[in-house]
Design a protein that fits this description.
With 323 residues, the chain is α/β, with parallel strands linked by helices. It contains eleven helices and twelve strands. It has a single domain, classed as Alpha-Beta Barrel (TIM Barrel), CATH 3.20.20.70. It has an eight-stranded parallel β-barrel, surrounded by eight helices. A two-stranded antiparallel sheet has the order 6-7. A hairpin with a 2-residue loop joins strand 6 and strand 7. The radius of gyration is 20 Å and the shape is globular.
Length: 323
């Protein structure tokens, strides 16, 4: 047999595989989610998300320093407030937990890029991402609340605001109020295609943000739809988003690829809590190799077209890649 084409020649050794590898991961690809709480000397592991923690501000500072030492220079913050009410008013207070965390990080580590998740779900007593009236989420009434939160984050020193609520028109509203208040340099990373997903369970445990009644299917996207995702992303681009995001990542690699193919903006993907927790659980039982599975998942997300990967494995992945 005379085989002129032998693709295996490019796979025969580790050296050649490294030379021709199409997709490579690095610390620059990752954003680490962090959960901040009030109090002191608190570093409590989240039961459903091993190796991730609720952190008080003093512990947050230590964690940020550790991440920077690893080469991870971007974080996204989620806060657990001291109180909740119907409109989520603790979300925009100047002394709110996220606002304090942003000020502390930027004062201590000006080089770290601080993204603030923007949503009401952690701050409302009903757990929904918007203003709730008679069992319905009021889209336009929610926008003014989101704008107040965005301004408070920008005033604290956030580099980028990441609205995750999925209200119509929120990117335009946030861009407008940021610009009007002198924050033209603050970016928007929009959760443009955020699906109504069963993969969020551990996060809701971590953020104490499960809805008290009903679900979020009236504002988060139907998992069966892909053309709708393109429409959502196009609207956010038109409204002024600097980065568009797909969430979750692993079951939506096709959406990430469509986003990359159709838009000339950076594409972020959120490797969410359920994707993380199921691998952790299987690894604890000895059913899979966590390192190999995690790096394969993260590679697939980047290969699909993501420029930025938000992942709970950020620090572990960098350590694995450096081994």
């Amino acid at each position: 047999m005379n085989l002129k084409k032998r693709p295996r020649r490019l796979r025969r050794s580790e050296n050649i595989r490294n030379l021709v590898r199409e997709t490579n991961l690095s610390a620059a690809d990752f954003v680490k989610p962090l959960f901040v709480v009030n109090g002191e000397n608190i570093k409590e592991e989240i039961p459903s998300m091993p190796d991730n923690y609720h952190l008080s501000l003093d512990q947050l500072e230590m964690e940020a320093e550790r991440l920077l030492d690893l080469g991870i220079k971007a974080v996204i913050l989620f806060g657990l407030p001291e109180y909740k009410d119907a409109e989520g008013s603790s979300a925009w207070q100047q002394d709110g937990i996220v606002q304090k965390a942003v000020r502390q990080l930027k004062n201590k580590f000006p080089e770290i890029f601080v993204i603030t998740d923007l949503c009401l779900c952690q701050y409302t007593d009903h757990g929904h991402c918007g203003i709730l009236e008679a069992g319905n989420i009021k889209n336009d009434a929610t926008l003014s609340k989101l704008a107040k939160i965005a301004i408070s984050y920008a005033e604290a020193g956030a580099d980028m605001i990441a609205p995750s609520d999925m209200m119509d028109g929120r990117v335009a509203k946030i861009r407008q109020v940021l610009d009007q208040n002198g924050f033209k340099e603050v970016g928007i990373m929009s959760y443009s295609a955020k699906y109504h997903s069963a993969f969020y369970g551990p996060f809701r445990d971590a953020a104490h943000s499960a809805p008290g009644q009903g679900d979020r299917s009236s504002y988060q996207m139907d998992a069966a739809n892909s053309d709708e995702a393109l429409r959502e992303m196009e609207l956010d681009v038109e409204e002024g988003a600097d980065i568009i995001m797909v969430k979750p990542a692993l079951s939506y690699l096709d959406i990430i690829q469509k986003a990359s193919d159709n838009f000339k903006l950076p594409i972020a993907a959120y490797n969410v809590s359920g994707e993380y927790a199921m691998v952790k659980a299987a690894a604890e039982k000895g059913w899979v190799d966590e390192k190999k599975v995690a790096l394969e998942i993260l590679t697939s997300i980047k290969r699909a077209g993501a420029d930025i990967i938000i992942t709970y494995w950020a620090d572990s992945a960098v350590q694995w890649l450096n081994e």
